[in-house]
Design a protein that fits this description.
The complex is a heterodimer. Chain A is an alpha+beta fold. Chain A is built from 2 helices and 6 strands. A 3-stranded mixed sheet of chain A has the order 2-1-6, with helices on one face. Chain A has a 3-stranded antiparallel sheet with strand order 4-3-5, with no helix packed on it. In chain A, strand 3 and strand 4 form a beta hairpin. The relative contact order of chain A is 0.26. In chain B, 35% of the residues lie in helices and 22% in strands. Chain B has 8 helices and 8 strands; from the N terminus they run E-H-E-H-E-H-E-H-E-E-H-H-E-H-E-H. In chain B, helix 1 runs parallel beside helix 4 and helix 2 runs parallel beside helix 3. Classes of the chains: A alpha+beta, B alpha/beta. Chains A and B meet through helix 1 and strand 6 of A and strand 1, helix 6 and helix 7 of B. Strand 6 of chain A pairs antiparallel with strand 1 of chain B, so a sheet runs across the interface.
Chain lengths: 113, 218
């Protein structure tokens, strides 16, 4: 959802951090996208390539790391991977679960010259 | 010579930082804020009108209305007795964001209200992803929308604090009831607090009003 506006925000962050580190060229950009962040990696890639044209990030290689969705059961403490947003605890069938990973959306790394 | 810089910069940081500023301003003025979200036509504006009318004299309520176009909702809540109203017309954007709310808040005298209701653009997908600086995310599901929506639109249910099941007065005409929706919703988010009501007839509204008073008054 809104990959284009996310791509714009990502580009702003990339350029800002690249300039703060005196980059003359950006070789690669590492982005972490959680499985339930609402952002589809392939859509983000498509949009980013588009918005990065004519910028310092134009030729940078976009590396997207996807984080699976993990939940923790508040009743038995088990932590496990979730396929959908919702699931019952894989150990005790409780619905009292908390998402502990999978909502991430951040710029994780820049490789510059 | 190449250099690798490790970072952990949230991409939604800009919106989050506006949201934090909004929250701080609201807190310093002693104002509670709720972000009211739902599909178009679930009854957000009707519930706001009812809330304002029934709490008249007890609570000063400000409203920020978010719509793609028109001032119809702002006109309605003003007529219902809202203390202060600002209409945001997004002219195409499908959700409100924190910077829009920050700007709207500049037109409100926060010292004169205890509760700020933000009525988001009718949309069951996008508003869930954008913090506005609110204290509570409240979503409305009307009975007529069916019990399959929680699992089809999990992000909205997962990111909300409160679920209001509305239009319970239509129950006799439908094949599902409130419990059907609530069961599905709680499977997506067991932490949801639930209110069951009809904004039109007033049935069940008192519990909602009691909650509002409980969180808005010192």
């Amino acid at each position: 959802m809104h990959e284009l506006s996310i791509a714009h925000s990502l580009l702003d962050l990339v350029i800002k951090n690249a300039k703060e580190n005196d980059a003359k060229k950006i070789i690669s950009i590492g982005v972490t996208v959680g499985k339930v962040s609402g952002i589809l990696p392939h859509s983000l890639r498509f949009c980013f390539e588009s918005v990065a044209l004519h910028s310092l990030a134009e030729d940078a290689h976009l590396i997207i790391e996807e984080i699976p969705c993990r939940a923790r059961c508040s009743d038995c403490g088990r932590e496990y991977e979730v396929v959908d947003y919702y699931s019952l605890c894989s150990k005790c069938d409780s619905s009292n679960i908390e998402i502990v990973a999978g909502k991430e959306l951040y710029l994780s790394q820049l490789e510059i010259e | 010579m190449t250099k690798v810089i490790q970072l952990k910069k949230k991409i939604k940081a800009v919106n989050d930082s506006f949201a934090t500023k909004n929250r701080e301003l609201l807190a310093s003025s002693g104002v509670m804020a709720i972000n009211l979200m739902s599909s178009p036509g679930s009854g957000k504006t009707t519930l706001i009108e009812k809330t304002i009318q029934l709490l008249s004299g007890q609570l000063n309520i400000g409203v920020i209305e978010g719509d793609i176009a028109t001032t119809q909702d702002a006109d309605r809540v003003l007529a219902a007795g809202a203390s202060q109203v600002v209409q945001i017309n997004t002219e195409g954007a499908c959700h409100l964001d924190a910077s829009m709310i920050g700007q709207a808040m500049m037109e409100i005298n926060l010292n004169e209200i205890s509760l700020l209701i933000i009525e988001n653009v009718g949309n069951l997908v996008c508003p869930a992803g954008f913090h506005l600086g609110e204290n509570y995310k409240v979503m409305i599901a009307s009975l007529t929308e069916g019990a399959d929506k929680p699992k089809k639109y999990p992000s909205m249910y997962l990111n909300s604090d409160i679920l209001i099941v509305n239009k319970i007065d239509l129950s006799p005409h439908l094949t599902i009831n409130s419990q059907d929706i609530i069961k599905e919703a709680k499977e997506v988010n067991p932490h949801l607090a639930v209110f069951n009501l009809s904004a039109t007839t007033g049935e069940g509204v008192q519990d909602w009003l009691d909650w509002i008073l409980g969180v808005s008054l010192p």
